[in-house]
Amino acid sequence: MRKIHVIGIGAGDPDQLTLQAVKALRSTDVFFILDKGEVKSDLVRLRRDILDAHLPDRAYRLVEARDPERDRAAGGAGYSPAVGDWRSARADIYERLIAEELGEDQSGAFLVWGDPALYDSTLGILEEILDRGAVAFDYDVVPGISSVSALVARHRTGLNRVARPVQITTGRRLAEGFPEGVDDVVVMLDAHQIFQKYADQDIDIYWGAYIGTPDEILASGPLAETAPRIAELRAEARERKGWIMDTYLLRRRPRG
């Protein structure tokens, strides 16, 4: 039976791969990569760099396909259906790749940024394909170093404080309000810099973009002072590269 490895590859640094991930790479016959277009071509290059670093003999095939576009203008009640349509379109592509490019006794792999269990669609897409019943395969999951773990490591701080909860959420959710009962909040997928909404509160921010790559940018400090600097850094980075991936931790200072 076909075998699929879903491999967490960390935040971009080839050195962030675990020994388990390297072992999975070495047992893979075909790597599937979705191309997001010329603007994000360096994401494909980073994956190739990881393969070159850990598989110098190149005893594998690399198969690329174009990633379907998602309706990013959809908001409100239309957001979830738009994401669902995009995931199904991805499932169509994954299904075709597995059926046409992978032999019955071969192993394929999808290289997932960070950790496959955190804000990534690959596992859900593979389950959708299996539910369709058109192609059979088994799969396993190799955890990776997430951008969240890499972020706090680069800032030399903990993710949580003693006996205190931490919440991981999105910019879309943060726009609805600061989570109740939580003083440490990690925010991902924030294209609109919602952190600026809370600049009048006693909050520190630990921010990072392109974490684990040569383009890495870090900033931290009181939110009121640091938010304008982050906005400038983001604008410069987007102008230079055409895209940005960033994550941040908001930490409310103890009351009283």
TrEMBL record:
Pathway: Cofactor biosynthesis; adenosylcobalamin biosynthesis. Keywords: Cobalamin biosynthesis, Methyltransferase, S-adenosyl-L-methionine, Transferase. Residues 3-225 form the Tetrapyrrole methylase domain. Its EC number is 2.1.1.152. GO terms for molecular function: precorrin-6A synthase (deacetylating) activity. InterPro entries: 4pyrrol_Mease, 4pyrrol_Methylase_sf, 4pyrrole_Mease_sub1, 4pyrrole_Mease_sub2, CobF. The keyword S-adenosyl-L-methionine applies. It is an enzyme of class 2 (transferase). GO terms for biological process: cobalamin biosynthetic process; methylation. This is Precorrin-6A synthase (Deacetylating).
